[in-house]
């Protein structure tokens, strides 16, 4: 394995001063980035950003919930993140009587902060390069299932050792560079997190789906939480006796703003990129994966939107579900558009041709580099029909037909645990909506999917003559899981539900998904081998290039500048927006997306911006930086050269939606809400200025 280790070491030596691309690993900042960051204006040392042995900036950054980033901004555990990141918790705490989504919520004392059930935040306490431990005993020639088994065994052993060395902590080991490198993350998980404040949807989601991924943007996308701990300042289950977490490291707040060209950096947890994607995978993305997702989600969202518009209760129940679905739906539309418009496939093909020529000239056939792209191509071709069907079924049935969720719970849980899980599910469930969705989903699955679960032939075909609507009506009329009272009664009585229609449907669906996964297994191993060799080969082909691993929801740093951009000929976008734009976008014909609260209008008319105005007397709302982020970075702090908080990253821009596959330095921008707008809303709009007393300003 020495060859691979040397390649990775080489990747940590040189950085192009012109490149803004890169989601950089913190342990390598000193080797890879420190010099370039200082040249761009950064005032912090690598040790101040990330230290193995001392408190550093990274200790203020957390994983928020299941897929976002947050930052600690006070000594007492106050936390900022995006409104759309806190949306699920805000929704779960809302009701028709207390509609915190529509009206917002503001605690006026710590006693009023609301426990958010199930919400967790995770601090990264240690990052360890365990590549030698994981790969040291894996022969270079090992591949396919054999290699996967060997690596899994080593990962398990290292995880157990680190867990023993770090009691009370979680340990995660993740792969980098296609399986060429492994890092372990030691994580402290806090389980008592409380909602402190959230603006109304008219601020937190201003612009809605129309403005999503777009610039100029005027969304106050933030929410405020607090982390609580036990008496020893360690994680504890919720208790009224818990106290605010005492943070050793927290972010200071900058009221000084930014100018064009200023240094900016972002720390957070980018979810997933595919920068090493090949042209073969791009074909699959454009021809199968994205079109299927766009169509299926679009059909479901249309139904949800109708029902949400007709009922305040349904609107609250499905607000978070709709938002999660539509976000990636629009992302997929933009990604396909960007890949085609910017000829990403053509650029990938050029890289592949250069790699093929290099491998033929500079490597031996036994090393495997010359066969890497063939392995990837063969994998994509061999798995194509199974991949298409598994994705279709996952989107249309697994993700969309909600009645399957309580059926799964009844199989996996018992007693009080089952009862509580069912109650949590039914709080945000409307059977008539689910029935409508299911009818549409079963119809399109029958029309478009080649690999069907057995229920289509054995039940829908034989019993209902192929009439999917009739089957869906039978399902919801006869399953105990279509009705909360019946489901809870069955759980309390310990009723055998193995023959319930929803349980049988889930069994049929699960069996087909397992069958499709098994059919793709050999291709999956072939792809893993090909990708690992391709990435290692690229690094060997260009040893002086700084290589960044794809995002995998691990703590990273990216840096760049506050910059405008030109999206098309004759069009120039400024690098920030102001409250004036909010007023200009108000649209009574589209009240769900472009409503402006009366209080905000009053403050604007009076120009009552206080200390949050910029030097021009404007109230900044959002701004741009050319930093490299993706999903998972939502809520990440945008920091200035001294490490003070400028704002919260919440989106990318439409013109560079292909950025997860190929970074676009001229076009790619991070959209962030200005921290001055955040503080203005908390203080002037909401009257919760008491929260600002615990902040520290630069």
Number of domains: 2
Number of strands: 21
Low-confidence stretches: 9-19
Overall SS class: alpha+beta
CATH level-3 fold name of the largest domain: Thrombin, subunit H
The assembly state of the depicted protein chains is: single chain
Main β sheet profile: 11 strands, antiparallel
Calculate Rg over CA atoms: 26 Å
What does this 3D model show about the protein?
With 698 residues, the protein is an alpha+beta fold. It folds into 2 domains: 1-120 and 191-275 and 548-698, Thrombin, subunit H (Beta Barrel), CATH 2.40.10.120; 349-534, no CATH class. Helices cover 46% and strands 15% of the residues. It is built from 24 helices and 21 strands. Strands 2, 3, 4, 5, 6, 7, 8, 9, 10, 11 and 12 form an 11-stranded antiparallel sheet that branches. Strands 1-14-13-19-20-21-18-17 form an 8-stranded antiparallel sheet. Strand 8 and strand 9 (181-190) form a beta hairpin. Helix 11 (279-310) packs antiparallel against helix 17, helix 16 (415-427) packs antiparallel against helix 20 (484-493) and helix 17 (431-448) runs antiparallel to helix 19. The radius of gyration is 26 Å and the shape is globular. 47% of the residues are buried. Residues 9-19 have low confidence and may be disordered. Belongs to the peptidase S46 family. Keywords: Aminopeptidase, Hydrolase, Protease, Serine protease, Signal.
